[in-house]
Amino acid sequence: MRRFDKRVAIGVVIIGIVCLAWLLVTGALIGAALTESERAAVINAVGARAVLLVLMWAVSLVLVGSMLSRLVAYFMTAPARLAEEAQVLLGTDVKRQLEPTGSVENRRLTELFNQLVQQREALREEMDERVAEAAHNTEQEKNRLAALMSELTKSVVVCNLDGRILLYNNRARMQFRALSQAPGSIGGTELIGLGRSVYGVFDRKLVAHALENIQHRLQRGAAAPSAQFITTTPSGQLLRAQMAPVRSVQDNSEASQMTGFVLMLDNITREFEAQARQDSILHTLTERSRAALANMQAALDVLEYPDIEPDMHDRLLKVLREETAGLGNRLREIKSSSVDSLVLRWPLEDMLGADLAAAAIRRIESLGTLTAVADDLDDSLWLKVESFSLLQALSYLAERLRQECTITTVQLRLKRVDGRGQLDLCWQPSANKLTDKVIPGWETDPMRSAGEDTSLTIQDVVERHGGAFWFGREPENGTVFFRFLLPLAAPQEQLETASVVRNESRPEYYDFDLFQTSAQTRSLEDSKLSELSFTVFDTETTGLDPANGDEIIQLAAVRIVNGKLLRQESFDQLVDPRRAIPRITIPIHGITPEMVKGQPTIDKVLPAFHQFAQDTVLVAHNAAFDMRCLQVKEKLTGLVFDHPVMDTLLLSAVVHPNQESHRLEAITERFNINILGRHTALGDAMATAEVFLRLIPLLAEKGIHTLGQAREAAQKTYYARLKY
User: Fold this and answer.
1) CB atoms within 10 A of CB 534
2) Over 90: is that where the pLDDT of 594 sits?
3) Could you tell me the residue range of the domain that residue 635 belongs to?
4) Which of 422, 411, 435, 426 is nearest to 468 (CA)?
5) Residue 389 sits in a domain of what CATH number?
6) What was the pLDDT predicted at 33?
7) Structure letter (DSSP) for residue 598
8) Taking CA atoms, which of 119, 244, 309, 440 is between 20 and 30 Å from 294?
């Protein structure tokens, strides 16, 4: 509309100049034909009406301009908008009806276009059904692969030759989350993510050396080459990595080329520490035992003398007893160490408490004559346990109750108490069959399960879980119980549904298309938009003047990799501004002073966000404001956000120059995008990311394919010349 307004104004000015010139020329011609007296008479007559003529001339220009503006809107603007809106429907998956405007012909054309869109959608639905049916088996295989990778107990990371991560499973995600230090804990950012560099975790030279070894073995014709190395993380943990190549087989050829590598990871820190302790104990036992045996042998040699004095005889017997006791203690240390080593091999896993109780009931009832029931179970409670040993402990206790106390029924109870899971094995005691002196000793006896003895005890199992165990009685009803206190699964290790992001699909942990591109072989400006990685972010602030004291109170971002929005890889952090939040702004962003109290300050949050956005292009709506909020903190943090920046407001103006508004709400309505959490940083970042993904194909239709082309086109728009 703005471009047509300029044309209207120019047209009105031209018409006014023409009319004025016509009046002047006409007056000059008439004046030249009159005598002096006639000219004076005409001037006197016209002078009285001059003001009226000027006013009529001005009113005529206004009417002409208004009429011209209406004609432009009627015959030019309406068709131009129809073309842009039709382009949206043709270039994206947006489904909506266009509103007829403008001339009768334009309205009729709009109706016909709506009919064509309906026919296209009907054909598309039919085609989608056929494609879905044909791709059913392929989708099943894909889901099996995703499920397999997600549930593997070993951490797996797949990278291309540039070190960009293109696949990882949930175990790797959890392991790297545990290994990450702050700032990794701020805002939800992690060390691992699709398209991110694995060299943020591993030494580049170490990985390059392993790759070189594998490639050398491939050249020699090795069938399954691999390499192993051990590295230290920034937090001091030891990781054992096994590397295997990813190879592509050429058509009609047995020759293969390495296109990437697989890393299988184990955290061996505790295993290393346990082995070191065992070595130390074994060394101590060997050295001390050698001396003890020598002392015992000497004492025995002397005791063989027939004329040994009684005092010497007693001293030598005392030496034998002390050395024997010392050997016994050291042997117990070795046994304890071996048990600890066995315990360290137990992996703790997240398990729904109700599932653990159901498995325990099945295990106990399989013993034969014992009945087990669930009573007062918290179905929402998640535990972090090693289920095999815990079930073994419960069945062991139940079996001893059946054998020694003639118990026929036990109950299982589970609830949350003081940040832990309280699991009770309860029963009603039989008369004269149960004493408090017998039961407590069971926890230190080696467990016997299914007729087989084990060196583990109830106490070992409890210590492995970092919990507690005791025997008790409820005085009000006489119920007796064994009570386990068990760790709960950490909140960040459970699957949660965010209030803003409703991700109903499986999280994206893989993207095999990343094998096809190489960030190191192409200049960033010449890179295609569809191949780049983007960080789409938004800020909420105390006001609109960051240069004069307004502060960030929320910073959120999501990542786009290879044309996919990775909803699970988000950054969302409230920030303590250390200043008052104006009350007038609270209804807009919904952030109160109580919500930011105790949150990290901006000097802690920006380094974490800088790490999250590493090696990506920044995207925002009205990016000039958000970038200004980051730039004013450069001196405080020492960080410079020198990433390439793209603005969806400017890109919208490039694609749709005839639209009246390029506000985020108007663009999302145009693209039929639902905004969840408007004026929250994460909600706006998600909406901006959805808009950006829809703009990319529309830019391609205009011949804009690369980052450099998009930035150049954006700078030519009207909005790029405005000062914010």
Assistant:
1) 27
2) yes
3) 522-721
4) 422
5) 3.30.565.10
6) 56
7) T
8) 309
- What is the C-alpha separation between 260 and 247, in angstroms, rounded? 7
Dihedral sign computed on CA atoms, order 290, 291, 293, 297: positive
Task: Give the residue from 237, 239, 218, 240 showing the smallest Cα distance to 228.
Answer: 240
Q: Is residue 438 part of a domain?
A: yes
Q: How far is CA 163 from the centre of its chain?
A: 19
User: Which tens digits make up the pLDDT trace of 140-151?
Assistant: 766 666 666 666
Known catalytic residues are 679
- Residue 609 DSSP symbol: H
Tell whether 405 and 466 lie within a shared domain. yes
Structure tokens at 285: 């036992």
Do 97 and 20 fall into the same domain? yes
Element holding 368 (H helix, E strand): none
Structure confidence by residue, pLDDT tens digits, 5-49: 555 566 656 666 766 666 666 666 655 655 666 656 656 665 555
User: What are the two backbone dihedrals, phi and then psi, of residue 102, each rounded to the nearest 5 degrees?
Assistant: 80, -150
Two tokens, residue 540: 């909420």
How far is 118 from 576, CA to CA, in rounded Å? 51
**Phi, psi values for residue 250, rounded to 5°:** -75, 150
Question: How far is the C-alpha of 72 from the C-alpha of 241, rounded, in Å?
Answer: 69
pLDDT beyond 80 at 274:
no
**C-alpha–C-alpha distance, residues 321 and 328, integer Å:** 10
Report residue 374: phi and psi, to 5°: -95, 140
Measure CA 634 to chain center: 26
Sorted by sequence, the CB contacts under 8 Å of residue 309 that are 6+ apart come out as none
> Looking at the structure, do residues 8 and 119 belong to the same domain, yes or no?
yes
The C-alpha atoms of residue 515 and residue 353 are separated, in whole angstroms, by 41
For residues 291 and 253, membership in a common domain is answered with no
Residue 511, domain member (yes or no):
no
Q: What is d(CA 697, CA 475) in angstroms, rounded to the nearest whole number?
A: 73
Interhelix angle 387-405/353-365, nearest 10 degrees: 40
What distance in Å separates the CA atoms of residue 611 and residue 251, rounded to the nearest whole number?
Answer: 41
Q: Say how far apart CA 200 and CA 705 lie, in whole Å.
A: 30
- Residue 503 within any structural domain of the chain: no
How much is the average pLDDT of 596-603? 93
Token reading at 263: 């890393």
Same domain for 449 and 420, yes or no, is: yes
Q: Which of 317, 344, 371 is the last residue of a domain?
A: 344
DSSP state of 466: T
- Sheet bearing 371-377, strands edge to edge: 371-377, 409-417, 420-427, 480-487, 468-473
Please state the pTM of the whole predicted model.
Answer: 0.55
Compute the average pLDDT of residues 232-241.
Answer: 75
Q: Are residues 479 and 360 in the same domain?
A: yes
Pairwise CA distance, residues 693 & 671, whole Å: 11
